[in-house]
Specification:
By secondary structure, this protein is an alpha+beta fold. It contains eleven helices and 18 strands. Helix 4 crosses helix 5 and helix 7 crosses helix 8.
């Protein structure tokens, strides 16, 4: 199977057909316009910055992601309007010709309740939207909204507008990726490949989880990342149950250490787990890793156009099989999700929803498949995640840092008999009386008196 993705530098050049950003913008807008036209909605109102970026190709920095301050409107059969944060509107009038001066406007929402309600910001937002819809004869049609603050929702309804869920429409449009989107997603993965290489070289006893996070962030920003959304760093006894957050824990010999790296290139993100052992690994961790790898591979083998999310999760264990009371309690451990301008897009893969509500896989989808397995020792665990692109005949994996077998990181240690094995049956800090007795019995049974 020929590769769908190619790897380039991040810059634009005249001598290779790399990412075509004009094509990226027009393709995204055409897709959401088409989905809107096929729906019952009259317009889409978006406060989610990722949705607004998809529609308007504008961006004002990661600080604004959760502020809900800026908003865009896409009316049926018309062009989008962007109300932006202060001077950003003027900047876009100058530097975003595809949006134009008239459709880049200053506007501000409620600052997550920071404004005094008496200032009427929610009512002003609703008024702006009603005016635009009335001018186009769309005020009586359902208005799709992705996410919204309660005062703005109430104000929209007070203006006589029928507000409905617009998030599903946006998710449907964003689910299938264009070639340019796939190239950006693959580029983002290539940068994480490099971050894992540097991390592997740095792992050693004494390094802290937060230092690992800082190292990864530096590598990614140096390579040109737009935003390091998060680095999940988990080690040692914190490996099971999975806490989903890094700490300042020091790594120790024999520890498992697994990481999830989330960052963005021109908005397009990664979700990319890898697991290492520090210095050496017990056999239980090796066994857990191998099973975790098998679960990933079985899932990838199911991916092809026409298959469903239910087909993929059919090869994954139920929550009760790895120590959880329900699928909700184990959610996110045997898991899959679309990846694009945000992590966790459609489709979703989980026994929690996929068995009874399967979604069909289509060429051009990009998603991550991630698995978890706890060790028999009760404290170590493994996590692996691969991102795949659905092709015409199957899929292509775009996360390339080695993960076929558990990798042992850190300095090699030497004894008088040679290198210390990286797989250790009995580690010194886990000896107990029974193991010592077994060793003594073996020594006595040996004719030389040596075990």
């Amino acid at each position: 199977m020929s590769q769908l993705t190619r790897t380039y530098g991040l810059g634009a050049v005249d001598w290779e057909a790399r990412v075509d950003y004009d094509r990226l913008r027009t393709t995204r807008l055409a897709r959401i316009k088409g989905v809107l036209e096929e729906s019952e909605l009259g317009a889409l109102l978006c406060f989610d910055m990722n949705n607004s970026r998809y529609i308007t190709a504008t961006h004002i920095g990661t600080w604004a992601i959760d502020k809900l301050t800026r908003f865009s409107l896409l009316p049926r059969n018309d062009e989008p309007i962007m109300w932006d944060f202060g001077s950003a509107a003027r900047h876009h009038q100058i530097f975003c010709p595809w949006l134009g001066e008239e459709r880049s406007r200053a506007g501000i929402a409620t600052m997550r309740g920071g404004f005094d309600p008496a200032a009427g910001r929610a009512q002003e937002v609703a008024r702006k939207i009603r005016v635009e819809l009335e001018e186009r004869g769309l005020a009586a049609e359902p208005l799709g909204v992705d996410i919204v603050e309660m005062p703005i929702l109430a104000a929209l309804q007070a203006e006589g507008l029928k507000v409905v869920d617009g998030q599903q429409l946006m998710q449907r449009a964003r689910m299938i990726k264009s070639q340019d989107e796939i190239t950006l997603l693959s580029t983002a993965c290539a940068m994480v490949d490099a971050a894992y290489d540097q991390l592997y070289q740095a792992l050693r006893p004494g390094i802290r989880e937060n230092e690992c996070v800082g190292l990864v962030a530096k590598v990614l920003y140096d390579l040109g990342s737009e935003h390091v959304e998060g680095v999940n760093a988990i080690s040692g006894e914190r490996a099971t149950p999975h806490p989903h957050v890094y700490s300042d824990r020091l790594l120790r010999p024999g520890d498992p250490a697994y990481f999830d790296i989330l960052h963005a290139v021109n908005g397009y993100r990664t979700c990319y787990y890898r697991t290492f052992a520090v210095g050496s690994a017990g056999r239980d961790l090796g066994d857990a890793y191998q099973h975790c790898r098998e679960l990933v591979d079985l899932a990838i083998a199911k991916v092809r156009p026409g298959a469903t999310t239910a087909d993929v999760v059919s090869v994954w264990p139920r929550a009760e099989e790895f120590g959880f009371a329900s699928e909700e309690a184990a959610f996110g451990l045997q898991f899959g999700h679309g990846v694009g301008l945000s992590i966790w897009e459609k489709p979703i893969f989980s026994h929690l929803v996929s068995d009874e509500h399967p979604e069909e896989l289509v060429e051009g989808m990009v998603f991550a498949l991630e698995t978890f397995w706890p060790s028999k020792d009760g404290w170590t665990a493994a996590r692996i995640e691969e991102e795949v692109v659905v092709t015409a005949t199957g899929c292509e994996v775009i996360t390339r840092f080695p993960a076929e077998r558990l990798m042992v990181a850190g300095q090699r240690y030497y004894t008088v008999g040679g290198p210390l094995p990286t797989t250790r049956e009995t580690e010194s800090h886990r000896n107990n009386l029974e193991q010592l007795a077994d060793t003594a019995r073996g020594a006595m049974a040996s004719p030389s008196g040596q075990p």
